[in-house]
Amino acid sequence: MRRFALLLLVTLAWPASAGEMPGWPARLEARLAVLEAGFDGELGVHVRPLDEARRFGWRDDEAWYLASLVKVPVAVELLARVEAGELALDEPLVLRERDYVDGAGPTNWEEPGTTLTLGELLEPMLTESDNTATDLLIARLGLDAVNRRARSLVPDPGSLGPITPLIEVRREAYGRLHPAARALGGMDFIALRRAEADEASLAALARRLGVPEERFALPSLDAAFDAYYASGLNAGRLDAFGELLAAIGEGRALGPAATAELLAIMARTTSGEARLKAGLGPGIRFAHKTGTQHRRSCDAGIAFHGEGAAERRVVVVACTRGERELEPAERVLREVGRAIRESGVFDPVE
């Protein structure tokens, strides 16, 4: 019944004088208006077919926290350096205890002293959003090089905020509560991550820092992350990130072999199975990267439909902010994917 009501609202949103069904941007806009009205937060969406001039944006010109979407330009920098002969994917790095970063992925299960190649770090960084693998790669590539590469792929370099190592995310956020938190290491944050509730996290942080909670500069973890998000670190406009993905899809970021390799890895992504990919459906191939942080969720990539000359390639970037729980955020991203699929954007261009 609820689904029928939502579809009715979408139908009523189309102008009666149009005479025919509106184009895919108008249909998508109507669907997103309904979705955001029923969501405890805000949506940001950018859709850009690579074989036509039309683009669609829903709050895509605003600054959004990109979370682990920033791992895509790290991958581009690595593969560009491999193409140039400066690095090799079989180059080994040794994992040290100070390298561990809290988060998902297999690298944290490896023992200190384990040798991993750049290629063995690239795969989980993208497919499982492995933070430890990411920071090892950033350290090898150089943070300035990663940021230069990212900004070189968008028309307005100021539309993408500075990318930082992933360890700096919690240092920056928790450092808003107390400056001593900026000195914490990866193992400290792994221990703090076990306290999942916000109140428990604050208490655990106070114990680890050896200071009473009354001395924290802000009253809550929400306030700390809001202050961090306002810094612009690891943030950017969704249309700008769409430009970066378009540069990949159109072969402007990398050569043909490296482009194919990057998209193949992104198509193997296992994180965010309940997000855009679930709504786009089984007939659409999605090479993508997800991002998740405190009250923030993203999913972005290039969706492929059809074969050969009839293939449609569509850049999709979608983020949520404000919703406290992950499941509703993922559910609305799934519905965004469904709305994109049903808008007609994958239909052949006449």
From TrEMBL:
UniProt entry keywords in alphabetical sequence: Hydrolase, Signal
Signal peptide (residue range): 1-18
Gene Ontology terms: biological process: beta-lactam antibiotic catabolic process; response to antibiotic
Pfam family, one: Beta-lactamase2
Reactions accelerated catalytically: a beta-lactam + H2O = a substituted beta-amino acid
Entry's EC annotation: 3.5.2.6
UniProt domain Beta-lactamase class A catalytic: residue ranges: 44-153, 199-320
InterPro entries reported for this sequence: Beta-lactam/transpept-like, Beta-lactam_cat, Beta-lactam_class-A
Enzyme class: hydrolase
Keyword Transcription: no
Family: Belongs to the class-A beta-lactamase family.
Name under which the protein is recorded: beta-lactamase
Species of the source: Halomonas campaniensis
